[in-house]
Amino acid sequence: MQMPLRYARGSWQNWAGRVVLFGGVGLFMYRAVNEWSRSGLGLLVDALIIAIAVTGLNLITGYTGQLSLGHAAFFAIGAFTSATLVTGKIWTPFLDENIWTPGWTLFAAGFVCFLIGMVVGIPALRLKGIYLALVTLVFTEAVRAVLKYDEFSGVTGGATGIKGFNYLPPSWTGLDGRADLVTWFFYLSLAILIVVSILSAGLLRSRIGRAMVAVRDNETAAAVMGVNLFTTKTLVFGLSGAIAGVAGSLYALKLALVEADVPLFGLFGSVTLLVALVVGGAAQNWGPFVGAMFYVFVNDYARSIGEDPSTSLFLGWFVDSGTKINGLGGVTFGVMLILFARFVPFGAVGTMRMWRSKVVQVVPRLPALAGVDAEPTAELLGEEGSM
Fold first, then answer.
1. What is the 3-state secondary structure (H, E, C) of 265-313?
2. Torsion angle, CA of 233/138/69/337, rounded to 10 degrees?
């Protein structure tokens, strides 16, 4: 059997592969913002926002191994934090756009969700698996109930929510107000996703990142080796919630309204984020982006097919013209989740990495010694290599 090619991490071959990958994604984004319709670009913005939230979920579920169904709650809290600040229901200084812009509420939403996330992370010290998932699910529904409670309607708007705010493009962007609103949110969402992804990758290379992986692999062994479980779990829950809160804030500013009955603010939202993570690949840097793109566009296609199933190559044989199938998007992703869990357990990105490793492997660069070339050789590498 032919051995795969091996390149050192940081070698010119490794960098060439990265340039090709990022160049391809950059070309796709360039064509999208310049050639797609406003509705198509709006779907892409939704995918980027969901990718940000899934990046947060990936920290706690993918890298730390704590199953959470509570990230829709952080998404909702972030959205309502921005909405209440922009409309002056809690704090009036944000009404002065000469000093503050609605974009500042992204930081406020992240900070609030970070604090709440650390509190929610405390039960994770005693619970794990399905029990932790149930606790976080109850948290999601409790947050939704509070947002709809009439006693807090002066702040949250109650059942009707909060409307009448917007985040127009700043003058320095050169964009034309409402006409370029979708374009503005595309650039803003893309920038935030890039920053969050870079920060997450840096976190994983740090001491806390190694502690996260140790907790995921064997919690008991991690504690024996000196990993502080309380600090690790609560901190990661806080960071994960903060990222989801920023995504929710961005979602609220894009919609220019928030209400407790928005699907992404409840159980549906938690399942959506989890499905996107599973489809894209847990514990993969590119997993949230791929999973979110896959979810949004396949779901939109399934919804359009549900409006007129007779246009489908398969369903057209069984239904008459004009028949509608409600909820086809949810059914489609229920089936997809089962198929991915059975046949693609590592997600799309994880599976592609496995296939790639059969052809090309990127291995750690060996430390340089005096008079010895630092580039790895077949004799030094033996049979070891990373995917």
1. HCHHHHHHHHHHHHHHCCCCCCHHHHHHHHHHHHHHHHHHHHHCHHHCC
2. 150
Residue numbers in the chain where pLDDT is lower than 50: 370, 373, 376-387
Nearest to 287 by CA among 123, 54, 103: 54
Rounded to whole angstroms, the Cα distance separating 31 from 375 reads 39
Cβ neighbourhood burial of 353 (10 Å; 0-12, 13-18, 19+): middle
At residue 385, the pLDDT reads: 41
Q: What is the pLDDT of residue 147?
A: 92
Residue 369: helix, strand or coil by DSSP? strand
CA distances (Å), origin 140, targets 52, 214, 232: 19, 28, 22
Report the candidate in 323, 299, 297, 300 with the shortest Cα–Cα distance to residue 310.
323
Provide the whole-model pTM.
0.89
Amino acid, single-letter form, for residue 139: F
**C-alpha torsion 52→57→58→60, nearest 10:** 140
Cα distance between residue 252 and residue 211, in whole Å: 34
Q: Are 197 and 286 in contact (CB under 8 A)?
A: no
* Per-residue pLDDT, 123: 86
